[in-house]
TrEMBL record:
<protein>
    <recommendedName>
        <fullName>DUF7878 domain-containing protein</fullName>
    </recommendedName>
</protein>
<dbReference type="InterPro" id="IPR057200">
    <property type="entry name" value="DUF7878"/>
</dbReference>
<dbReference type="Pfam" id="PF25297">
    <property type="entry name" value="DUF7878"/>
</dbReference>
<feature type="domain" description="DUF7878">
    <location>
        <begin position="16"/>
        <end position="125"/>
    </location>
</feature>
Length: 141
């Protein structure tokens, strides 16, 4: 699973204080060589949900649901991963591009999420001189 973003709007003044609304962009999610999702999202809000899920998933041997449903969205869930047997997930979205819910492995989901966070963090450092470590909401408990 790959997640690629393009920044469309940034409010630099909110990056540290209120990151949920600070960075918007187009997010493309590809699974099994099929574009499943292509929509504009609040990228830092999504990144916070991804980081929280990765942190929680690392603490358990049970497959965890992932649900990204921002409060201001009327079409929920924006992205939802349903655990299946043997370390796989079905990927769902109210904004689906592909009519078939792809099935992806836990390692593919984890790698896709980690690569997304790494790329977004590097982009923010390069373009805005702000890293996730500078944002209080991104600090691990």
């Amino acid at each position: 699973m790959t997640l690629v973003f393009t920044i469309t709007e940034v409010n630099r003044g909110l990056l540290l204080k209120y990151p949920y609304a600070a960075l918007d962009g187009d997010l493309t999610i590809t699974a099994n060589d099929t574009t499943f999702f292509l929509e504009s999202v609040a990228l830092l809000d999504f990144a916070l949900a991804v980081q929280h899920w990765l942190h929680s998933a690392a603490k358990t041997s049970v497959l965890l649901h992932f649900d990204y449903s921002p409060e201001d969205s009327t079409d929920n869930p924006v992205l939802y991963l349903t655990p299946l047997a043997i370390a796989h997930f079905a990927v769902h979205s109210a904004w689906v591009e592909s009519p078939i819910a792809p099935v992806v492995s836990l390692p593919d989901v984890t790698a896709g999420f980690e690569n997304f966070l790494l790329a977004l963090n590097e982009y923010m450092q390069r373009e805005y001189n702000v890293a996730f470590a500078d944002i209080p909401l991104f600090k691990q408990p």
